[in-house]
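Structure request: RsmD family RNA methyltransferase, Winogradskyella bathintestinalis.
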Amino acid sequence: MNNNLLHTEIQEFINNNLNSNTSELLLKGIPFKSVDSKLIIEQIEAKNRCQKKLPTWFNAKNIYFPNKLNIEQTSSERTANYKSQLVSGKSIIDLTGGFGVDVLYFSKQIKNVTHCEINAELSKIVTHNFDILNTTNINCLNENGIDALQRIDQPFDWIYIDPSRRDDSKQKVFLLADCEPNIKTHQEVLLQYAKNVMIKTSPLLDISATLADLKHVKEIHVVAVNNEVKELLWILERNFEADVIGKTVNLQKHTSQHFEFYFNHESNVTANYSQPLTYLYEPNAAILKSGSFNAISKLLNVDKLHKHSHLYTSETLLDFPGRRFKIDNVLPFHKKTFSKTKITKANITTRNFPLSVNEIRKKLKVKDGGTTYLFFTTNLNNDKIILICSKI
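Returned structure:
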């Protein structure tokens, strides 16, 4: 950590050049001899990535930023805030602290917080930044989290761990066994030191396969931001053996969409099916990832169009964790039939349909945009249909 980066004139240069072309800045030459120009460029690029993702850090003065990879791997403030609402008690230890975003939000809920980071440079950066952000209840350790847990040798109310999803060659991995530390081999140790363990994993992870790898899973949270799944959270509780609860959330700008179900019920219930009725519902990305396709039909009293279509319908308008539409017309998928609608511009979605969106646009000569929404899907009779809709 080069403290010269925090000098007033260098900080002003960084802030004044956040929108500059960094390659051109290097070519022109950066007028500071006390700091390597590449470090200043690294600060500019890293801070740029924080503007929307980490506004607390972006807006604070004299924050020291790590490289872009650390910023890429860290939680956003929105997801960190969500996680902080899941924990309680007096103590929590983050075994893979990273840039410390999750820890900062845990510190708003829990009195004693421990941040473990094996990278000495990053640990110094985080310690500095926590001082800048006026936190007083976070203890930073430059130590392997598992080793620290066993050295401290005391119980915590919660353990949080976000295993590194990069291998020795810095390539992305996402299977639990490929991440570091390996949760499969350490889960019993974690539950020895805390009754509650929260594990953050890649959204690409297969939920059913991972359930077979983990023990004592109490809850699985599928967390999406603006309809993009960002992370899976696995809540383990010591000796827990009951049904696993699935919780999906889609964090939006002004509201959040929540849905809750039991994983074992999904395979034990049958969805209701019908032809398209008055309203159409498209589940958000978190629900699609959770696989709760039958449960949502039963619990929300909506009918499914087809086993594999994952679109729902009802006669009366209902609250639904996803997009809602009024069905204006239902057509068989025929070019001549569609041409009579005179629709030349629309938003197109496919579900359980043999053609891609681009293929449909080319075939039917429909441009992107407008206020008309077209869903190309398959109904319960296996007919290919077009749903012409208006968004609610």
